[in-house]
Inverse folding.
């Protein structure tokens, strides 16, 4: 697919129309809705028989010439010939991430806009792997990008490249050393035009080895029940309601359930009573999600208890990010919580 080659070859994903046409051919018509003119004009233009093209010289608004760098021969060109067209990478990669069923909004993270976080691969709730796209066209730059990804990711990651043109043993060593995976866009996606893609197979099928290596092992390590959280749910989708001091009713989008402190991993086995994390959760419920120094349950010990409560809730719901945020001189839950009494 020409699109992936264009991502690797066009510097900054901005070029005059002839450059885009050279790399995209007939497929340019499907990409044009994602190209927009920018104020900056080209300083050189492609020219037959040259590698670097010809230098652009503007005498006035209508007198523009392309000058041969060796012979100084000048040929008239139009302003349209030097307009730079920029690719809307946000829309393009958002479409790719959607087709791969990734969670999150793609964003650039470095290497001159050539390294992107595409989102998170979530094979099962509670198990998330960051997915990074590196579009560098040079093997050494790809190795640098892979090193950045390795440093950014605390968990095994998924490295994505447009193709395998820049494959190298060094990159493979970094990926394999982290127990991670490497896939390509041309192997996984079909392009339907603009920012619309279709996965050739599910991402889980492409990443079978990664899932078997990490997810199944993780599942064997834990016997604590998890809530059947719908894929893509956020903390704002969670509602917890205490029906009594030992039981809560939970709703996350279209999933509901009733749990006690033990089934949420917040009980003391020896005494068969709730632990301090459960007590703190109940304190949040009594004040509808807000706890500060004016609360009757305020305590210097709440800082550590809050941290452990957040970890337990993350594990139970399988939702990333801290569910309890600082507010004023206390904290506020990012999920809805209250009590019947």
């Amino acid at each position: 697919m020409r699109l992936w080659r264009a991502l690797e070859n066009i510097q900054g994903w901005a070029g005059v129309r002839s450059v885009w046409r050279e790399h995209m051919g007939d497929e340019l018509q499907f990409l044009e809705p994602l190209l927009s003119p920018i104020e900056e004009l080209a300083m050189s233009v492609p020219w037959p028989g040259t590698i670097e093209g010809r230098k652009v010289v503007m005498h006035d608004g209508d007198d523009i010439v392309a000058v041969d760098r060796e012979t100084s021969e000048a040929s008239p060109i139009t302003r349209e010939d030097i307009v730079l067209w920029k690719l809307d990478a946000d829309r393009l990669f958002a479409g790719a991430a959607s087709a791969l069923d990734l969670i999150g909004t793609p964003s650039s993270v470095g290497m001159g806009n050539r390294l992107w976080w595409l989102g998170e691969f979530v094979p099962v709730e509670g198990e998330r792997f960051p997915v990074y796209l590196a579009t560098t066209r040079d093997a050494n730059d790809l190795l640098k990008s892979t090193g950045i990804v390795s440093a950014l990711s605390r968990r095994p990651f998924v490295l994505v490249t447009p193709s395998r043109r820049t494959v190298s043993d060094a990159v493979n060593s970094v990926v394999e050393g982290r127990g991670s995976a490497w896939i390509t866009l041309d192997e996984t996606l079909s392009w339907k035009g603009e920012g619309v893609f279709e996965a050739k197979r599910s991402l889980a099928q492409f990443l079978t080895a990664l899932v078997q290596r990490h997810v199944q092992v993780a599942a064997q390590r834990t016997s604590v029940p998890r809530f059947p959280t719908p894929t893509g749910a956020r903390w704002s989708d969670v509602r917890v309601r205490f029906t009594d001091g030992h039981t809560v009713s939970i709703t996350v989008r279209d999933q509901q359930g009733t749990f006690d402190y033990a089934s949420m991993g917040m009980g003391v086995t020896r005494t068969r009573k709730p632990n301090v994390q459960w007590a703190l959760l109940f304190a949040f419920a009594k004040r509808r999600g807000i706890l500060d120094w004016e609360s009757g349950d305020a305590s210097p010990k709440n800082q550590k208890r809050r941290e452990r409560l957040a970890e337990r809730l993350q594990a139970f719901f399988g939702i990333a990010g801290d569910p309890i945020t600082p507010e004023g001189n206390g904290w506020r839950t990012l999920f809805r919580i209250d009590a019947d009494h």
